[in-house]
Amino acid sequence: MKKSFLISLLFLSIVGGLAFPWLSPPVYFVSLLFIVFMYVVMSESWVLIGGFAGYLSFGHGAFLGIGAYTTALLMNHFHLSPVWVLVSTILAGAVAASIAALIGYPALRLRGPYFALITLCFAFVMELVAKNLNFLGGPEGLWLKAMGTKVGLARGIFYEIMFILMVITVMVVRQIESSRFGAGLKTIKDDEEVAQTLCINTPKIKLYAFVLSAFFPGIAGGLYAYYLSYIHPEMVFNINISILIVLMALFGGSSTYKGPLIGALFLSLVNELLSVFLKAEYARVTYGLLFVLIIIYLPDGIMSYFKDHPQKKRPRVADSFGKMG
User: What angle, 0 to 180 degrees and rounded to 10, lies between the N-to-C axes of helices 202-228 and 85-107?
Assistant: First the structure.
């Protein structure tokens, strides 16, 4: 009975989400939900490497920027119209995944804070590259051809695509969580040496997880570029995006696909409120305080309080970060 109720609720949520932009809501709410869905995609993707495997990536927002710039270059160089949105965004995801493979192959040999530092530096480097290469628009950024329809209709279409991408991403992460692949990643998080003694090809599955975790943000970045019709390095390579992704995943609980979903839905709305009512500097301070409070008081996220065995020993703070060896 409970399972059938949840399935019905999920079905109604999906139908309601798809129907929302066509109920003539204010454009602001359509745009807000588009951003919320984008953060769900990125936080769910991040949990593959940061939550399941315990390799914290603090530069994951860079893959959003890579996808955005790939789409912009494809549109401007080949004079593609927004009709090609699906093809170009999938290619953007493939480019982001390819760069993740190049970065991940050497970086995943490091662990704990060393891997986190490498990914953080990667995000800063990508922003500097975008600002200093003329064919990427330099500090002026790049304009994209807008869809030749009314603003409300265009936003509704991109809303639908991002919503579908979010649903697909959540389903993929959920499937991985219950698969042998997911079990291997969680074994790596518990103890990588033990995983190797169990004949788990740890370098291979870590790289697969990192590449897959970059693919979906790359697609989301392509959609984001189409949606805005203009991109700038400080918009899509902003380090605050990477930090917010980690914050969302840890807040909800990075050991399950449900955690990033809840964290992204909640904190993206909080982020919007902070951006509207506070200055950017105060918003950054608030992000930092939230990050500290979550690590101290919610080391395994709010999902830990909904488990069937609340008497289970409370995990240590270091457990949410995986092995720090």
Answer: 140
Taking the alpha carbons at both ends of the chain, their separation in whole angstroms is 45
pLDDT value at residue 311: 46
Helices 239-252, 112-132: crossing angle, 10 deg rounding: 150
Reference 303, options 312, 169, 9, 268; nearest CA is 312
Taken in order 109, 287, 41, 260, is the CA torsion positive or negative? positive
- Contact at 8 Å (CB) between 222 and 70? yes
Amino acid at 208: Y
Encoding tokens for residue 97? 């995944």
Six-digit token string for 88: 């170009």
Query: What are 47's strand-pairing partners?
Result: none
CA atoms within 13 A on the CB side of 167: 13
Sign of the CA dihedral with 73 first, then 75, 79, and 84 last:
positive
At residue 257's C-alpha, the angle toward residues 2 and 186, to 5°, is 120
Q: Is the torsion defined by CA of 106, 111, 113, 116 positive or negative? A: positive
Closest CA to 20 of 217, 152, 216: 152
Tell me the pTM.
0.87
Task: State the Cα–Cα distance between residues 29 and 143, nearest whole angstrom.
Answer: 24
Residue-wise pLDDT tens digits, 168-212: 999 999 999 999 999 999 999 988 888 888 888 999 999 999 999
- Helix 151-177 crosses helix 2-19 at what angle (to 10 degrees)? 150
SS3 label, residue 230? strand
Q: Where are the beta strands (DSSP E) in 178-266?
A: 230-231
Residue 46 CA, chain-centre distance (Å), reads 5
d(CA 191, CA 198): 11
Query: In sequence order, which ranges of the chain are alpha helices (DSSP H)?
Result: 2-19, 27-47, 61-78, 85-107, 112-132, 151-177, 180-190, 192-197, 202-228, 233-236, 239-252, 258-277, 280-297
Tokens 């996808």, located at residue: 67
Strand partners, 142: 231
Report the 10 Å Cβ neighbour count for 173.
27
Output the furthest CA–CA distance in the chain (Å, rounded): 60
